[in-house]
Specification:
- This protein has 363 residues and is mainly α.
- It folds into two domains: 244 residues, Fic-like fold, CATH 1.10.3290.10; 69 residues, Winged helix-like DNA-binding domain superfamily/Winged helix DNA-binding domain (Arc Repressor Mutant, subunit A, Orthogonal Bundle).
- It is built from 16 helices and five strands.
- Helix 8 crosses helix 12.
- The longest helix has 40 residues.
Length: 363
């Protein structure tokens, strides 16, 4: 039966694909992507305090992945929202911060040896800030053009069909004799999007799945691959290639697209990590030489956990009591490393060089 976008795609083929996905071009690109990931994994070790990376790059991934779904905020708003646990943030910013929380929750679970498709339900629940189940039996959703309302795709019917296809997806990902893990990730990303197991949040959950699987496979040490930025840049091609797999079983262009994205993203993320390390070293040297009375390695590293700081952070870290902490931050502001402003009744301090580094599109 020919594919009909208005009918549930209950005949979505199980994995592995019926065609060979390990073609010569795919294997060559897979090797390049693997090398780039290895370089990124090594670069992560350059940062002495891993919280510096975990607090910054995943937030950029959260912003980009959410932007694909037209959930828009700024990096500055995200960093500011962390100062008060997002209590006063706007709804869009809170939603993006939940993406980072979901990614971190999934990362912690995978590091503990708990990778499974069931984990994705927990991830999606964090994204929505409530328990979120797979689509129920008989439940049908349509995916269409929001402007023309033309139906472009109807995923498989909910209930047992979705559960069976998710079980098959998990078996494929965890198979010991399948294709290279990167190729499996690309194939699985299509399959998850095609299954569309949730009523909402599938795109963001699927992009988190990419990162969690790479961590599970040992290709990433930290969840710092900024892949959604690549997908935004090539958004139309991303959706076109997804549909080509559905309608033509055109796997090779899709897999090559994802692997190229991994390679490019790994390289740019590696450069960003190295730039953070250079800036950290420069700041350590400058504070040690120009403000020796306040210098400590712990203080400088704390200022790199995220661009915005406040006196309470130094107190909570055991670096200094409140009055002394205020003097330390004031001294660093005099050097031009920090810049302060009043937010309500509280003074906050922004690490200007770090903020500039994290908010520019290239390094």
């Amino acid at each position: 039966m020919a594919f009909d976008p208005a009918r549930p795609y209950d005949d979505l083929p199980p994995l592995p694909p019926s065609v060979d996905v390990e073609t010569a071009p795919v294997l060559k690109q897979c090797l390049r992507a693997t090398r780039a990931l290895a370089e990124l994994k090594g670069a992560g070790g350059l940062i002495p305090d891993q919280a510096i990376l975990i607090n910054s790059i995943p937030l950029q991934e959260a912003q980009a992945s959410s932007e694909i779904e037209n959930i828009l905020t700024t990096r500055d708003a995200l960093f500011r929202a962390q100062l008060n646990d997002a209590r006063t943030a706007d709804p869009q910013t809170k939603e993006v911060l939940r993406y980072r929380t979901a990614l971190r929750r999934g990362y912690d679970t995978v590091r503990g040896g708990g990778f499974s498709v069931a984990l994705l339900r927990e991830v999606c629940s964090v994204l929505h800030n409530r328990d979120f189940a797979f689509r129920r039996s008989g439940e049908i959703v349509h995916i269409g053009n929001p402007l023309t309302r033309e139906i472009r795709y109807t995923p498989p019917t909910g209930g047992s069909r979705v559960e069976e296809k998710l079980e098959n997806l998990e078996q494929y990902l965890l198979s010991g004799d399948g294709p290279d893990e990167l190729i499996r990730m690309a194939v699985a990303h299509y399959q998850f999007e095609a299954i569309h197991p949730f009523e909402d949040g599938n795109g963001r959950t699927g992009r988190i799945l990419n990162i969690l699987f790479l961590v599970h496979a040992g290709l990433l040490e930290l969840p710092v691959l900024y892949l959604s930025g690549y997908l935004i840049e090539h958004k139309q091609e991303y959706y076109r290639l997804l549909m080509d797999v559905t309608t033509k079983q055109s796997w090779e262009p899709w897999v090559l697209f994802i692997l190229k994205g991994v390679e490019e993203t790994a390289k740019t993320t590696t450069e960003r990590v190295r730039a953070i390390r250079r800036l950290l070293d420069q700041t350590v040297e400058r504070v040690r030489n120009e403000a020796p009375a306040v210098y400590s390695k712990e203080l400088v590293e704390l200022l790199f956990h995220q661009p915005y700081s406040k006196i309470a952070y130094l107190v909570e870290a055991g670096i200094a009591k409140r009055q002394t902490a205020a003097e330390y931050l004031g001294a660093l502001e005099e050097l031009g490393i920090l810049q302060s402003e009043m937010v309500g009744r509280e003074r906050i301090f922004v690490n200007i060089p770090l903020m500039n580094l994290l908010t520019e599109d290239s390094v």
